[in-house]
Backbone:
């Protein structure tokens, strides 16, 4: 079996693999990333190298994180790519991205993220935001919609709040299933994330903010008076000028930060 042909690698369901096959779209994605020589670029899940090759052509070198042993082997022995790559053969969910960053070379992370782990992977990556200049990801369009969603919409939830609190979220382009092998059952989209230096209103604890969002959106049909009754009483909601009869999707990020800071203060010994 020829390892260097696209056909030589069977996409593996357990890794959520779908490979891009449209040159024009690949070129548009690389333009959106805009890699430059000397930058600290790292690709998650390079797969068959659809983005890896054009990025290396522009930047000269690249680090990649690849869990699939066959694909890592293929990249190590690739006639053009091998000498330009640093390969980290590890699950991206377990990789310490801070270990490859430095103050004068912040990370520029990109990749076609496996759909089955995209949300936990985004949360893992956000933990390293201090070391990151920007991130460009291909995700299920629905995930990008949720990341960018505003209050009072169906898509707005924990992912919207936690991502927008930590980053500027910019949807870049949408990509139909026909541009992948095998074709996924969903539309995809590219999103650009640029970590904020600081958010206008500070959460005292990210962990508490996340907990408050989980509590709210686990039961999104309930009013917040009901979903928060174990954490916050109606008087406290009113003191924060939050209407207890609203539903979770009606609250702004700033209001979630107020709630989280109140809960955090209550939990301190």
Residues:
């Amino acid at each position: 079996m020829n390892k260097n042909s696209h056909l030589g690698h069977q996409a593996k369901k357990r890794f959520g693999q779908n490979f891009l096959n449209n040159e024009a779209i690949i070129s548009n994605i690389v333009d959106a990333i805009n890699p430059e020589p000397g930058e600290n670029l790292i690709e998650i899940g390079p797969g068959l190298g659809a983005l890896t090759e054009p990025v290396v052509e522009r930047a000269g070198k690249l680090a990649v994180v690849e869990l699939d042993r066959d694909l890592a082997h293929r990249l190590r022995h690739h006639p053009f790519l091998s000498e330009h790559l640093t390969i980290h053969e590890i699950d991206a969910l377990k990789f310490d991205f801070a270990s490859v960053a430095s103050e004068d070379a912040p990370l520029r992370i990109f990749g076609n993220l496996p759909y089955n782990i995209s949300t936990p992977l985004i949360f893992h990556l956000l933990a390293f935001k201090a070391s990151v200049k920007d991130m460009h990801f291909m995700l299920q369009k629905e995930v990008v919609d949720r990341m960018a969603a505003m209050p009072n919409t169906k898509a707005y939830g924990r992912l919207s709040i936690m991502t927008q609190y930590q980053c500027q979220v910019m949807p870049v382009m949408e990509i139909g299933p026909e541009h992948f092998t095998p074709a996924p059952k969903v539309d995809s989209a590219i999103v650009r994330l640029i970590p904020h230096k600081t958010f206008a209103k500070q959460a005292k604890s990210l962990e508490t903010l996340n907990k408050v969002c989980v509590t709210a959106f686990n039961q999104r049909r309930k009013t917040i008076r009901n979903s928060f009754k174990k954490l916050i009483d109606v008087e406290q909601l009113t003191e924060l000028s939050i209407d207890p009869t609203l539903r979770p999707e009606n609250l702004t990020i700033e209001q979630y930060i107020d709630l989280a800071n109140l809960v955090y203060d209550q939990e301190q010994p």
